[in-house]
Structures are given as C-alpha cells and as structure tokens.
Specification:
The protein has 21 helices and 31 strands. With about 725 residues, the chain is α/β, with parallel strands linked by helices. The protein has 4 domains: about 250 residues, Type I PLP-dependent aspartate aminotransferase-like (Major domain) (Aspartate Aminotransferase, domain 2, 3-Layer(aba) Sandwich), CATH 3.40.640; about 120 residues, Aspartate Aminotransferase, domain 1, CATH 3.90.1150; about 180 residues, Ribonuclease Z/Hydroxyacylglutathione hydrolase-like (Metallo-beta-lactamase, Chain A, 4-Layer Sandwich), CATH 3.60.15; about 120 residues, Oxidized Rhodanese, domain 1 (3-Layer(aba) Sandwich). The strands form 8 sheets. Strands 26-31-30-27-29-28 form a 6-stranded mixed β-sheet. Helix 2 crosses helix 7, helix 9 runs parallel beside helix 18 and helix 12 packs antiparallel against helix 18. The protein starts with a strand and ends with a helix. The chain binds pyridoxal-5'-phosphate (PLP). The site of pyridoxal-5'-phosphate has 12 residues, from helix 3.
C-alpha cells in the first residue's frame, strides 16, 4: 500500500510525540481529578495550573480569563451566548444595542450557525449580516465602517481555514474603535494558534476561541479567552470547575497534551519557522504548476498562512482531483472538511467572488508546522505523478499519444451528464448533450485523443452544443451544416427500424447512430449495429434520451416514446437524471423496484465470508484509470480502454476494472450474460453503491458493493 502523505493540516493534525507522551502519562499515572484534595488530585491540579499558566503567557492574556473546554465550537457557543445575553440585558435596560449581528462572510460555519441559534433561543431577533470580503478574502473595511455602528456583536476570524488568508485584525480594530464603541468582538483564532503572534490583552478582542486538534494536540480539547470586563455567561453549569466558568471534570489527557504543544511553541525549537514553511509551500506550488497546466491559486500567498494552498484546475472537477490525489496517497480536501461530502461550491471562495469553476473545483492542500523536508519532497513527486495520470487520461493537455478510448462514456455533472460514443478503430466519436460544465473536459479529451467528431448532438435544443462545436475547431470540421439539434444535414441514407419507419442515421466505425424525432425540438438517438440497412430492436444496445421521467414523474415517458423500436433491455441513457440514475431500461421502468440500501452492502469485515458464500463472485473496481496511474499500480490489461483483468482488489483478491464512467458500456454484457455475483468497490463506497444500485434497478439481483470501499477494507483485514 502507498504510504500516506497527510496534507490536510487545516482539518486536523496528527499528535506531537511529546503531546502523546503527556496524555499517556496522565491516563496511566497522573489520572487524578484536579478537584480532589488528596495528593493524586493535587498532582492533577498542578498539571492543570501549569498548562494554564503557559497558555496565558503565550497568548498574552493579561488579566483576562482563559478556560479549557472541548474545542472551538464550544468556545464560539460560549462567546456568542455571553455576548447575546449581555445585549439582551442592555436592551431590557433601554440601552441602544444596534440591530445587527455582523460576521465575516468567510467565517467557519460554527459562527453564523451559533449566532442564528442563540439569537433565536434568546428571542433577540437581531439581523444576521455577512460582512463582505474582497477578492483576496480579506474583510471589506469600508463595508465594516458602514455596518459596525449598527452592530451589537462583530465576529471575524484571525485566519481562514480554507484559504489560510490572514485577516487585518489591526485594521478591523481601528474601524471598531472609530465607529462601534459598544460592539462586542469575537475573533476565531483556531487557525492562528502557533502560526501568528497573539497578544490578546493588548487588543480589544472580547472573545477568542482555540482548538487543540489543529495544532498537534488531540481532538476534544480547546480554550476560550475572554477579555477582562467582557460579559460572560457559562454555557455549562455543574461542579464549578474552571472557577465556575465551565463546569465538568476537565479533559486532563487533552489538556496535558495541549500543554506539551504549548511548551514546544514556547521553546521555539520544535516547529518550523515561517520562512521555512513558506519555502515548502513554494515548492508545492511549483510542483502543482508543473504538473497541472493552468492551475490557479485561490489564495494570495502574500497574505495567507504559509501552510495553506488553495487551487483549482481548469476543466478538472474537484471530485476528480480528490480521487487522483487520494489514489496517490496524498490526503487533501475539497472545500472545507466539514462540507467535503457535498459537491457544493465553497462558500468562502464564492464570497471572494471567484468564478464558479474555481469555487466549485477548489482543492485545499495544507500542512502543519512539524512537516519535514522528506514529506515535502515526496509530496512534490506524487503531485508530478498525479499530473502524468491525468494527462494519460486526457483530462489535462498532453504531448504524449494517449491510449485510444472506445465505447460509451458517461461524464456526470451534478445530476446530469453528457455522453460520448467513441470508436477507436476509426478514431472518431459522437458527442451527445454536451453540458456547459463538461465542455472544457470534452474538448480537452477530443484534442488529446485526436478523434474526428462526427456529430455534436442535443436531445433538446439547449446546452452548449454550438459553443463546443466552435471550440473543437478542426476536430469538428467534418460535421458540415446541421439542424438545430446538431444533426448533420449530409448524414447517411437512413436505416429501417422495427416500427417499419426509415430514420436518418450516421455511421461510426461498425456502429450506427439513428435519430428519432420526438415532437418539436426534441430527439432521441439510438446506437447499435445495423444489418443490411436495418437496425432491429435486439441490436439496439443504447437509446440516448433527454430524461427518463415524464413531467408527471411517471417514469414511463422515455420508454413509451420508443415503443416498437427498442427492446425491453435496451439501455435508456438520460442526460438529465438524479446522479444515482445512470441508465434504465423499458423493463426497469415498467417494474420499478424499491430503492435498495442495506441489502446491497457488504461490509469490509464480512468480505471473506461473503466471497465464501457467493462462489464465483467477480470483484469490480469502478475507479477511473487515472486513479490507477496515480497510485503507481501496475495496470493489468488496458484500464484506459475501460477494462482490465487482474487489478488488485480489497484484501488482495483479483478484480476487474470497469470505471464508473464506462459502466453503461458493460451493462448489456451483464444483463444478457449468465448471472454471476458482482461485488463493486471503489475508494470510499460512494461510487460503487451507484453501480450496484443501477444493476439492481435494471433487474440484476446479484449486485453488491463494498461499503466503506478500499479505505476501510485493508484495515478490516488487519483487525
Ligand atoms: N473555526 C475554524 C476556523 C475552524 O477551522 C474550525 C475547525 O474546522 C472550527 C472553528 C471548529 O473547531 P472544533 O473542531 O475545535 O470545534
């Protein structure tokens, strides 16, 4: 297995060895409760006091409060509750408190969510207003100047978790001093700890939450600073720990570990300097520039933490970049870690007004101040390998001759997809329904493969067809004049279908594409092998349609419109469908099955049992060819062409490669062949579940998927 290079330090960090030792010492030896008055308790109290003293010194807390808690989300909660209760009391006394709760548009969600929650719970009904940021992600101080006089509470962060952009806290403070004397000020210092100098008591910051796990301490420990004299209300009441500021027996292992990290920060010898870290970031950035042509950085290095890079690559979605980096063993994240499961564009980059392709395609690469030279060198080498992998798959421009691709390829974009029909022998292709978001990728693919484009077709008159044809230049020159849906006027003779009608057609190698008009401005396209001027239903493997369902959602529309020309198992390939749809068939639409969940899952720990009880199971890897290439895995067969025989599967079992984008091309083989158990897998289980569901929907009952994917499988075997 490839060793892991962890470049997701802004999400969380590993544990400093000294912190682990300190935590273990507390768990094994100094396990006392600091509230106990016997010697065991007193030793724990001494540890607690020493860590607090160190933290106070390091953060320049002055005569402010500094309490330990479970992390920044709790700290933010406590600060917001304290501030909002104080505002409510002031209002009840008849004082003016302003109408706004102002927060930076790029704040971590913990801030606006807490504001909304406590505003509602406390019945304050103030207006939450996002403070805009400029193109580099820094707060718009002129907007602050306008809004601050109306604000009861202002929340800004010291450094952003997605971009590492460092706020101009001095500038914000000056504006607040000028025009918002009464407003309280919360500064989320999570990403700043250990990376920026903080002397909290010499600022007018009222509340500053911190989190241990972003700086080599464990999860579940944090701190909250409260300025002397700032309003405070405990969130947790009980045994009166932390001087009654935060009840609950202290997380002594976490606090001791945090203490070891703070000691390392103080001694100055453990963590790398700003200049060294900036040098490492430059090396990573140079590697990215070399590997991924056109890469753009979404954070201005001059005003961001030296440990964060945020970038987008034209034409390559973040999901593809995530897959390729993960396959190479480089752990990065797309958007912020908390929302990484959703494909939503980054709200941080949207607030910076970056174009959608950048906010939706962004990758964050971040490392900690303990990183070593060898890790950076290895990361640079793997970045280069990721670039080569994407190049070989024609996802980014390449000088090398790629492996020719063949068959039907599906390119999905957020619940819709474009279809490519490729013929390697004649080096030509037909493109169906190019979605605007997929155009760059399709153009890149065609140029790299040097395929002649025979037609760019639409099922309905919309989309980016004309733009793509123009962008394809010489590659689309052979198409000639077309109608509004892209059908070439000089297409072939026509072919007879089973309904007795003759339809216009064009040939692509040994295949024929026939067009079926469906009312005004709509068409379906049929793909199969023509025999003596006929395209009989049983030869029709694919029907490309705009969508499966009728406007009333009955799901029969596509099949009904093609009745008489296709057969029950012809695959209906929709352009617009929810992202789990892939293909359907007239048979599947006529007998809708309940969505299958649990019963198609095979858990990693149960894999061997499953394989024993399902002899002859074929394991199918639905990862894409560029993931193999990035992993440096020997490619058995020809994965670029979408099928290889002995890729290595979970637990070393032999597996066959059928990339998800090629699933449709293989469906009829399974549907028409002798049924065998199929167990799909991928990196995380997110893609293999779609493959298994698609087969089940099509009536193939022997399809399963490995839940948790390869990420969990090796662990389960080792257990
Ligand atoms: N604020 C920022 C800027 C963060 O990056 C995070 C964590 O992602 C949090 C707050 C929440 O911190 P915790 O995980 O300690 O609750």
């Amino acid at each position: 297995m490839t060793t892991e290079i962890y470049l997701d330090g802004n999400a969380t960090s590993s544990i400093l060895p000294a912190a682990l030792a300190a935590a273990l010492d507390v768990l094994e030896q100094r396990f006392g409760n600091p509230s106990s008055t016997h010697a065991t308790g007193l030793r724990a109290r001494a540890t607690l006091d020493a860590v607090r003293q160190r933290a106070r010194r390091l953060l320049g807390v002055g005569d402010g409060k500094l309490m330990f808690n479970s992390g920044a989300t709790e700290g933010i909660q406590t600060a917001v509750l304290s501030a909002l209760l104080a505002l409510r009391e002031r209002r009840e006394r008849g004082e003016a408190i302003g109408a706004l709760l102002l927060y930076g548009a790029t704040e971590h969600k913990a801030v606006p969510e807490s504001l909304a929650h406590w505003n509602r719970v406390l019945g304050l009904h103030l207006e939450l207003r996002a403070l805009p940021v400029d193109g580099s992600g820094r707060h718009d101080l002129s907007a602050l100047r306008v809004l601050a006089p109306q604000a009861g509470l202002v929340c800004t962060m010291a450094a952003n978790n997605e971009t590492g952009v460092i706020s101009d806290l001095a500038g914000i403070e000056a504006v607040l001093a000028d025009c918002a004397a009464g407003a309280l000020w919360l500064v989320d210092c999570v990403q700043a700890l250990g990376k920026l100098d903080l002397h909290l008591a010499s600022t007018r910051i009222d509340y500053a939450p911190f989190s241990g796990h972003k700086l080599y301490a464990p999860k579940g420990v944090g701190m909250l600073y409260v300025r002397a004299g700032a309003p405070y209300t405990a969130l947790m009441m009980g045994g009166g720990q932390e001087d009654g500021l935060r009840s609950g027996t202290e997380n002594m292992a976490g606090i001791a570990a945090l203490g070891a990290v703070l000691a390392a920060l103080e001694d100055g010898a453990t963590f790398r300097s700003h200049a060294e870290l900036a040098g490492f970031r430059k090396r990573l950035a140079d590697s990215l520039r070399g590997a991924l042509p056109g890469v753009v950085f979404n954070n201005d290095f001059a005003c961001s933490l030296p440990t964060t890079l945020n970038f987008s690559v034209p034409g390559v979605p973040s999901a593809t970049l995530m897959d390729v980096f993960d396959a190479a063993g480089v752990r990065v994240s797309s958007g912020s870690a908390c929302s990484a499961k959703k494909a939503a564009p980054s709200y941080v980059l949207e607030a910076m007004q970056l174009p959608r392709w950048r906010s939706a395609g962004a990758i964050r690469m971040s490392f900690g101040a303990l990183v070593d030279e060898a890790t950076i060198a290895a990361a640079c080498a793997r970045i280069a390998r990721c670039g080569e992998a994407l190049r070989a798959s024609c996802l980014i421009p390449s000088q090398q001759a790629p492996l020719p691709h063949d068959g039907v390829v599906q390119l999905g974009v957020e619940g819709a997809c474009s279809w490519l029909v490729l013929d390697a022998a004649s080096r030509s292709c037909v493109i169906i329904d190019p979605l605007p978001e997929a155009c760059e990728r399709i153009e890149q693919f065609v140029r790299c493969q040097q395929y002649a484009v025979r037609a760019v077709l639409s099922t309905v008159a919309e989309g980016a067809r004309a733009r793509l044809v123009a962008a394809l230049g010489a590659y689309s020159a052979g198409i000639g004049p077309t109608d509004a849906l892209g059908w070439p006027r000089q297409a072939g003779e026509g072919v007879m279908l089973d309904d007795g009608g003759r339809r216009a057609c064009l040939t692509l190698g040994q295949q024929t594409v026939a067009r079926l008009e469906q009312g005004t401005g709509q068409a379906a396209y049929l793909l199969g092998r023509a025999v003596e001027g006929r395209l009989p239903a049983q030869q029709l493997r694919f029907a490309f349609v705009s969508q499966l369902a009728a406007a009333d959602g009955t799901g029969q529309a596509a099949a009904a419109a093609l009745a008489g020309v296709i057969e029950a198992d012809t695959l209906l390939c929709p352009t617009r469908a929810s992202d789990t749809q892939f293909c359907s068939s007239p048979r599947a639409l006529a007998q809708p099955r309940d969505p299958v969940g649990e019963e198609l899952q095979v858990h990693a720990a149960a894999l061997d049992t499953f394989l024993r009880s399902h002899p002859g199971t074929v394991l199918i890897d639905v990862r894409e060819p560029y993931e193999y290439a990035a992993a440096g895995a020997p490619a058995a067969g020809d994965p670029a062409a979408g099928d290889s025989a002995n890729a290595s599967g979970p637990g070393g079992h032999p597996a066959r490669s059928v990339p998800l984008s090629r699933l449709s091309a293989h469906l009829s083989e399974w549907l028409h062949g002798t049924p065998v158990p199929l167990l799909f897998f991928c990196r995380s289980g997110n893609r293999s579940v779609k493959a298994a569901q698609c087969l089940r929907r099509l009536g193939y009952s022997q399809a399963w998927h490995l839940s948790g994917g390869l990420a969990l499988a090796p662990l389960a075997r080792a257990a």
